[in-house]
Amino acid sequence: MLTTPFTELLGCRLPLQQAPMGGVTTPELVAAVAGAGAEDAVLTDAFSVMWPNGSEPLRTLRSALEAAESFQGEVVGETRMGSTTLPVPRFGVPCPNRETTGAIAAMVHYAGQSVGATSQVRPAAEVVTELAEGAERLLRRWG
Fold first, then answer.
1. How many Cβ atoms sit within 10 Å of the Cβ of residue 36?
2. The model's pTM
3. pLDDT digit string (tens) for 108-119?
């Protein structure tokens, strides 16, 4: 066990935390990420509609960019933010959540190049445990 102010504050064994997405993402997004390789995460500024600062580059799955480019229409679906339902414009910045409807494949699928290391769907607790145990082994070995 490694003790730091962080581990004491949160009551965890190692100073390593991960935010789970299972409660907010869609099955379509999970499948797209699990099936993607590093080369499938593209840098683009296409998804900038609704972004307050204008166009800024971000990484999204190539399949989402291609689906948005070929989508006919200006609104790809609707999403909920709190108690508000909002239209999602084509090339809009809102990422689909469990309450999003419409052409999910044509919405931004934020993903970095590490998406290539994701090949299966696993509970976050299992992944965090594996990472923490591996980190603890390395820290002990390094002394």
1. 21
2. 0.69
3. 988 877 777 766
